[in-house]
Every structure is written in structure tokens, then in C-alpha cells.
Amino acid sequence: MESRSNGIELEHVSKSYGSVLALNDLSFDIPVGGRFALLGPNGAGKSTTLKLLIGSLRAETGSVKILGAAPESKESKAVVGYLPEDALPYRMLSVRENLEYIAALRGVEDVKGRTDFLLDELDLRHYERSNVGRLSRGNTQKLAIALAIVHTPKVLLLDEPLNYLDIPTQEKVIAMLDRMEGTHLVSTHIMAIAHRLTDSVVMISKGMFLWEGTIDELRKKGSPEEPIESVVARMMAGAS
Q: Which of the four, 41, 146, 177, 187, has the lowest number of CB atoms within 10 Å?
């Protein structure tokens, strides 16, 4: 798996929910080590794409690969970390129990050491014995991020990772993710988040591929004084 040139590949992928076509012949790939934002308006198919990549959904047509393996394979599941939007860790377990349980399932060698590191890194030490059901939404999000990265995944899939976090915590999470190696795909509809966490963009609209390139290339599609959000909005409006 390590020799594959692409961390993520989608080829001619379509997915429907009943009569609603969520993804329509979607193709893109992300090289190993690439940091890409999956950018699009609400309802563009971003969350569906991530669910296909973790193997919780199956495409009706096309091919989905993680480091050359099918998402539902043991090889893929061992190297992927996933943060869903509105993640809900085990509510009846404590913060520490959640981390130690998932770390053990993920085959982390030093479960206690990794748990202690993440408790301190994300300022969760004060809450380590608290049941998740009693946490604030922000602390629940911090725990969900810790669970996604507890096994130091080679491919990290994040759905709106900065939701519910205050500004100091956002900065801490951004710095932590910046230090991590691997292939990152961040689903968001907020350009500022894409700019802070990634250097390239895959843009989709109505489940279809719209554009791919670096954030600098995206910026150049507008005039020097035009905000990049305006460029993105114009491109998406043109696809509607």
C-alpha cells in the first residue's frame, strides 16, 4: 500500500438516496501526503463522499480507493482516521475510557501514553473522568478529533473539524493537524477553514466535480482585490 502514488481515488462514482442523486459521476484523486479541502455548498455531496471513503456507504457505480485498497478492506480501515460532522463518542463512557477503548481497538502500542498525550494536547485532562454525555459541545468535538487521530492515521478524513470550537482551540487543533503527516481531506463549506488546514481544493457542486487546484490557483481566478470567497461563490453559481 505504501508505494501507491494516490492516497485517495474516486473514479466515475455515483450514489443515490432513493430518487435523489447525491453524487453524479464524481472523479478526483489526492496524492499521498496531499492536503485537500473538499469544498462545496451544503448538499453538494461532501459528507456522502467521506462516507464512501470510510466504507460505510457503497457507490452504485465507479471505484473508490484508499491507498489502492477498497475502503471496506482491513488494509484501508487500519490506516484511515475519520471525524464525522456532529460526531458522538460513546456517551456512557468517560473521556479517558473512550480514548483507551478506541486506541486498543486501533492497535495502538502504548494505549495509556497516547491517551495521556491527547488529553493534554487538547486540554481534556480536567474532563478525563467525565462521561461524554455531560460534556459541552466543544469538548465533545475535541474528544472526537482525538479519537480520529489516536492511531496516527495515514489518511485523515475530517468533516467540518472546527465546528463548535472556540478560537483558541481552533488554533490549537490547526497547529496539531499541521504537524501530522499523511493524506488529509477536509470537508467544509467555509473557505477560511480550507485555507488554514489545506493547500489545495477539490470543488464539487450538486454531486459533480467542478474544479481542482491549489488555493493560490483559485485565488488567481479572480481580480487581485476580489475576496476568494467571492471567486468560489461565482464558480459555484456558474455550476448551478
A: 41
Q: Would you state the cell numbers that stand for residue 226, as one nine-digit string?
A: 476580489
What's the angle, vertex CA 158, arms to CA 52 and CA 171, rounded to 5?
Answer: 175
What pTM did the predictor assign? 0.94
**Quick check: 65 and 6 in contact, CB under 8 A?**
yes
3-class DSSP state of 107? coil
Exposed (0-12), middle (13-18) or buried (19+): which is 168, by Cβ within 10 Å? exposed
Instruction: Answer for the pair 17, 124: CB distance below 8 angstroms, yes or no.
Output: no
Q: pLDDT by residue (tens digit) across 161-209?
A: 999 999 999 999 999 999 999 999 999 989 999 999 999 999 999 999 9
Q: Could you tell me if 162 and 173 are in contact, meaning their C-beta atoms sit under 8 angstroms apart? A: yes
At 18-63, the pLDDT tens digits run 999 999 999 999 999 999 999 998 899 999 999 999 999 999 999 9
Q: Can you spell out the DSSP letters for 3-57?
A: T-SEEEEEEEEEEEETTEEEEEEEEEEEETT-EEEEE--TTSSHHHHHHHHTTSS
- Could you tell me the three cell numbers for 11? 473514479
- Joined grid coordinates for residue 30: 489526492
Per-domain residue ranges for the chain? Answer: 6-239
Note whether 32 and 6 are within 8 A (CB).
yes
Q: What does the pLDDT read at residue 63?
A: 97
At the fourth CATH level, the homologous superfamily of domain 6-239 is P-loop containing nucleotide triphosphate hydrolases (3.40.50.300)
